[in-house]
Amino acid sequence: MTFQEQITEGIPSVLPQPKPYETNINHAPKRKEILSEDEKKLALRNALRYFEPKHHAELIPEFKEELEKYGRIYMYRLRPDYRMYARPISEYPGKSEQAKAIMLMIQNNLDYAVAQHPHELITYGGNGAVFSNWAQYRLTMKYLSEMTEEQTLVMYSGHPMGLFPSHKEAPRVVVTNGMMIPNYSRPDDWEKFNALGVTQYGQMTAGSYMYIGPQGIVHGTTITVLNGFRKIKTNPSGGLFVTSGLGGMSGAQPKAGTIAGCVTVCAEVNPKITRIRHEQGWIHEIVEDITLLVARVRKALKNKEIVSIAYLGNIVDVWERFDEEGLYIDLGSDQTSLHNPWAGGYYPTGFTFEESNEMMANNPEQFKIEVQKTLRRHAAAINKHTAKGTYFFDYGNAFLLEASRAGADVMAANGIDFKYPSYVQDIMGPMCFDYGFGPFRWVCTSGNPEDLAKTDKIACDVLEEMMKNSPSEIQQQMADNIQWIKGAQKNKLVVGSQARILYADAEGRTKIAEAFNQAIARDEIGYVVLGRDHHDVSGTDSPYRETSNIYDGSRFTSDMAIQNVIGDSFRGATWVSIHNGGGVGWGEVVNGGFGMVLDGSKEASRRLESMLFWDVNNGISRRSWARNEGAIFAIKRAMETQPLLKVTIPNLVDDALLNN
């Protein structure tokens, strides 16, 4: 069968032969045993819904074995035989170009070069799933190949509920992931209901079909590292940045450190993902011996090298040994997947990677004890360095949250706040999000690198022209992004699809998108998919990350994220998504995203102007109402440019009156 025939086939009427378990692939760890015997039968019934009754007798023992062996029913047998990657849009079957673009984006999320656990349909973060099983993938692709522009595909946590009549102006796909009744959003609830096959953890851009590989966070990390050094008034040259995590999004850290111009040490316990990042050029060197690491870092600092070094081992050992050796760390952070601490997101020290995985699956209570012991050691070692002047920031991965739950010394004197700020509180919030700057991204659906180079130039030209008249409050943001886009090709950021990201405000996003649409209309480039990370101005309500610099008490509400997706859906988005869970954990965040296909039409111009303006200014208005100074400036400026925008501005109270 051709690729197109396999896509349109969906779930085959004749079952494919079982596939061998490929040990060279980076697989998800075995999930904990959590289902009762009756619930295991329910999980099997749920999985068998996708298949004709004539196949049930054959599939039951196979699915039962998967459930027992891996803690989930992935339906490995249904993995397609074709190579998984983002093909040019012209190679996809279908009646709708918008639907073809979505197929492209789904396959990019599952590309072996992009996905963390591709055979388990997990893109990043240990549990950030595009689908829960391969039947869902096959059925979704079939629906997309049949879709017209008078239909909308409804996605329930990885399951394609079906194609429903709608209209041309409606989103082609609406995605929800993990939308639980609030009292059922504990970590074990995810384990249970995911094992039953009735919900999934879409992370942020994984279940939204908008992940573009580590590049998606490289830019944000680069800005964070640059501004971290600016904050401590230190030049990155000859400076040391220490962090951990190379899987998924965290793999961006060493590349960002290199672009910023410092020495970066990033610890990782997983040998496979470490080698992958090295092969992809995201890290320069791998060191497995802590003594050799100390010597290598001393040499790099002395020579002011710009180098990224992966330490294949536990990050706690790095912090502790560097303290013993008197190695000064300028910037420190952590980006292990601590939103998922008991299922592979963080590993205890003192055990091999294999021993930890075995303990996680077979003795989860002991694993939790060891993880929490390690978190206490981790925090204690960081405290020793910060006492010497190290600037440590929480990178929104729930490190401080889980460390506090483990009893680590991470709380401020008031017993309420953490002693270390999140990077959003100190850097990204006041410098970027409050002014509307966030991770705007695009994908060239032709798959042609020349199209990406053309869009880079278009974006750079737009930003340089805008900067001439930009107010002083956002000159630094503009300059950083122009520098970034000029170096994008040189830094070889593409993994998977021909994609790019830069931080832009509503004006910048709209002008860049319109310039793309005009270039498409002139046949200079192919169709472009617009999107963004959920880690943005408006899309996410996350009290310990995206909205951690909201100080009016509303950071634990999620009105903004819900309003964002509703507003995007009727202002022209091609697809929208809303998730429970993300980079800081299940039940800890609600986040929404979108995708928009530009085809060079007047309709696309109208849609992008309407939707992008809302998508950013929704968040600015909320931040303004929280009394964030930069956001008050930004929303007033937005009202000056758009007379139909009328936003309530807060009245400020004299603190002296409250303190009387």
From TrEMBL:
Main location: cytoplasm
Keyword Lyase recorded: yes
Subcellular location: Cytoplasm
Catalytic activity from the UniProt record: 4-imidazolone-5-propanoate = trans-urocanate + H2O
Pfam family, one: Urocanase_N
A GO biological process held by the record: L-histidine catabolic process to glutamate and formate
Domain Urocanase N-terminal as annotated: residue spans: 84-210
Keyword Cell cycle recorded: no
Cofactor note: Binds 1 NAD(+) per subunit.
Domain Urocanase C-terminal residue range list: 433-636
Coiled-coil residues: none
Enzyme Commission no: 4.2.1.49
Keywords: Cytoplasm, Histidine metabolism, Lyase, NAD
Domain Urocanase Rossmann-like: 213-427
Pathway annotation from the record: Amino-acid degradation; L-histidine degradation into L-glutamate; N-formimidoyl-L-glutamate from L-histidine: step 2/3
Residues involved in NAD(+) binding: G125, G126, Q203, E268, Y395, G583
Cofactor(s) the protein requires to work: NAD(+)
CC per GO annotation: cytoplasm
Family: Belongs to the urocanase family.
Classification via NCBIfam families: PRK05414.1
HAMAP family with a match to the protein in the record: HutU (MF_00577)
Function: Catalyzes the conversion of urocanate to 4-imidazolone-5-propionate.
Protein name per UniProt: Urocanate hydratase
Biological source species: Flavobacterium limnosediminis JC2902
Phylogenetic lineage: Bacteria, Pseudomonadati, Bacteroidota, Flavobacteriia, Flavobacteriales
UniProt gene name: hutU
